[in-house]
Amino acid sequence: MTPELLVFADDGTIPNNPRLPALLFRAALPPGDPAAAEALFACHGWPPAWRNGIYRYHHYHPDAHEALAIACGRVSVLLGGEWGQVLDLEAGDVVVLPAGTGHRNLGASADLLVVGAYPTGQSPTEHRGRPGEHARAIAAIPAVPDPPAEPVTGAPWPL
């Protein structure tokens, strides 16, 4: 399974990642099975951290990479900031966001369930593009260690 690589530039508010692309895996998991996503992530060193949805405001994590598995439902997500890319995701899809990558829920089905995970040892803080955050994020993002593997196939990351 080969992911689609998505690259986003710093827009002055959302830094995105200057080095690593986001990874999009379509139909990577059986739809409707959050436990399958959790097991897959865990076996590749990304312990599942939560089950929920995706925030409706733009946010990013300057100190952790994040994997989002769409376990149930559908969601339209804007990645990379206000001038980024809209992705329509459905159950079974996985997107892997390197530290700093902005993401926002633009609308979802009522049954949306997302499984989120971070590489072992990484714990995210949330930034929303408030004044002063960008400069701190630019300094923090390069310090986030690369995980030994991406969470879907277990291939080395960066690819």
TrEMBL record:
It comes from the Bacteria. InterPro entries: Cupin_2, RmlC-like_jellyroll, RmlC_Cupin_sf, UCP019307_cupin, YjiB-like. It holds the Pfam family Cupin_2. Residues 58-105 form the Cupin type-2 domain. PANTHER family: BLR7373 PROTEIN, CUPIN TYPE-1 DOMAIN-CONTAINING PROTEIN. This is Cupin domain-containing protein. It comes from uncultured Craurococcus sp.
